[in-house]
Amino acid sequence: MTQVGIESIGLYVPRYYVDLEDLARARGEDPRKYVAGLGQERMGVPPPDEDVVTMGANAAGEALRGVDRSRIDTLMFATESGVDQSKAAAIYVHHLLDLPAHCKSFEIKQACCGSTAALQMATAFVAQRPDRKVLIIASDVARYGLVTAGEPTQGAGAMALVVSAQPRIVALDPEWGSYTEDVMDFWRPNYLDEALVDGKYSIKVYLKALTESWKQYAAESGRTFADQDRYCYHLPFTRMAEKAHRHLAKINGVDHPPAEQIEASLRYNRQIGNSYTASLYIGLASLLETSETDLTGQRVGLFSYGSGCMAAFFSGLVLPGYAQGVQRGRAEDMLHNRQRLTIDEYEAFYLHELPEDGSRYVTETHRTGRYRLAGLDAHKRLYESCAPNRQADAPVHAVAAT
Ligand code: CAA
How many domains does the chain have? Predict the structure, then answer.
């Protein structure tokens, strides 16, 4: 059977963050609730000239370094915070990255699990056509209402994976466990900019979906809890992974699973917050890039959860030489070089609205990656590519009202 897996990965996070202790004080909450109770220290905040397209293009640019672009056959863009009801975010990225015209490009949605649906389709496609590669982008802005219980679990980020029959990082196992149920734990009607959520219920459904998808995975693969050396979970907030890991261990008769099975996978998320479709894969990058031990030959169990709901449990083997395939230190530099926002600045970013009347609008320049939203004209989004880090010292401007 053809070995299929992850050949390269790329990650991008916005250049601004809110410190959750600042947010807790502003909201009259005990900072320990956010930092210890939810397990979050900071959350990424995109400026008005970034969106899922620019974040996704930045992540994909990283993932495509050293990859033969002429063999990218398909670009799948998973998001639940897309910018257009019709045109796929993938098409904008296809243009920004100058991908070949024969590369099919489309968007996929099923809450945070859309990226995993893309991965499953990509593995099947590559198994059939081992000469081709698939680029998957997962990019999201997690957005709840200001001064709501969900607010400290916001965040933003993007992840890109090249899936091929020449995997250098992780070879995926062929068994998948899945679970689907029609529930209203988290959703966002077309007329709202922020998600609605039944928070406590969403945690219950997450754990039920974990149980059910694990059962199918275990039955299909014959593997047990002890057969996975490490675990990565969908990360709405890091304490969720701790709850999930204890839950999975318990239903498998293990009372105290070792903390190191998940610890390294949580490091980036603690600094970024939820990034919906990207968060499981940012967890995987965090594991591969920050683990102190050599992971070669270790099996990683992965759990993907998308509210509404669909979930999947699957696994992969870390390949020899994976450390050369991941960019150790690069994400940590990105996280350290972000600018801290005051709560007033964060709220100004949050409340900023693009015009909806078709008028021409030039977006104020903030710190971004290589790609940014330059503005709008006649209801069309205008993106631009610029020199990397060109505004590294640009101040946070008050965001102009439109
Ligand atoms: N010191 C230390 N810990 C404290 C504390 C303090 N002073 N005060 C509270 N805590 C602890 C609580 O005990 C609790 O921990 P446990 O769950 O272990 O008991 C934790 O901090 C959170 O406190 P609450 O449960 O009281 O918090 P809340 O009701 O205000 O909201 C939340 C928590 C439901 C997660 C809310 O942030 C939310 O709705 N978030 C969005 C939904 C979400 O992330 N759901 C996850 C599953 S759905 C999913 O995964 C898909 C997705 O991406 C959205």
Answer: 1
112 is known as an active-site residue = yes
Q: Is residue 390 part of a domain?
A: no
Residue 336 main-chain phi, psi, to 5 deg: -75, -25
Residue nearest to atom 12 of ligand 1 (CA): 37
Mean pLDDT of the chain: 95
Residue 191 lies in a domain: yes
Predicted pLDDT at 388: 59
Which residue range is the domain that position 219 belongs to? 5-340
13 in helix, strand or coil? coil
Residue 90 falls inside a structural domain = yes
- Tokens 């601004």 correspond to 16
pTM reported for the whole predicted model:
0.96
- Cα distances (Å, whole numbers) of residue 200 to 184, 209, 235, 240, 309: 12, 15, 15, 11, 15
Residue 33 in domain: yes
Ligand 1 centroid–CA 210 distance in Å is 18
197 lines ligand 1 (CB under 6 A): yes
Mean pLDDT of 284-291: 98
pLDDT at 399: 34
What's the pLDDT score for residue 401? 31
CB atoms within 10 A of CB 22: 17
